[in-house]
Amino acid sequence: MSQQDADRSRFESWLLPLGPGSKRLSRRPWLRTQSLFTPKLGARRYSSEVKTLFKKLGAEPLVIELDEMGPQGPQLQKVLERLTGQHTVPNVFIGGQHIGGCTDTLKLYRKGELEPLLSEAKSKSSQG
Questions:
Q1: What confidence tens digit (pLDDT) does each residue in 58-97 have?
Q2: Which residue among 21, 27, 60, 126 has the highest number of C-beta atoms inside a 10 angstrom radius?
Q3: Which residues of 58-89 are buried (b: 16+ CB within 10 A; e: fewer)?
Q4: Could you list the residue range(s) of the whole structural domain that residue 112 is in?
Q5: CATH of the domain at 41
């Protein structure tokens, strides 16, 4: 098993408790495809901007606060860095696809490309 496969497996195992049986996700199953990973401290401003934007768009992302995960938080951040090449937070995923951080997310919004991604992810999730 390659390092990337091991990281992906580890990443998925941390999210498993948040899967389809989770009360959080059963209300809005499409959230499985849209995630925002952020610590509350340090990158608060950037995380806040992305959260505010999603709220404005009517999206309710699954937010995983790395600093509330205990020792698993820094481990998950390292795994995310190896998988995405991004060491900063927030680390945004939509439809299972890595979008980037705050700047990338805002850039997609300004170009009119964020809302279609959110709609597509929601549509795909409700079909499957």
A1: 888 888 888 787 888 888 888 888 888 998 888 898 888 8
A2: 60
A3: ebebbbbebeebeeebeebbebbebbbebeeb
A4: 3-127
A5: 3.40.30.10
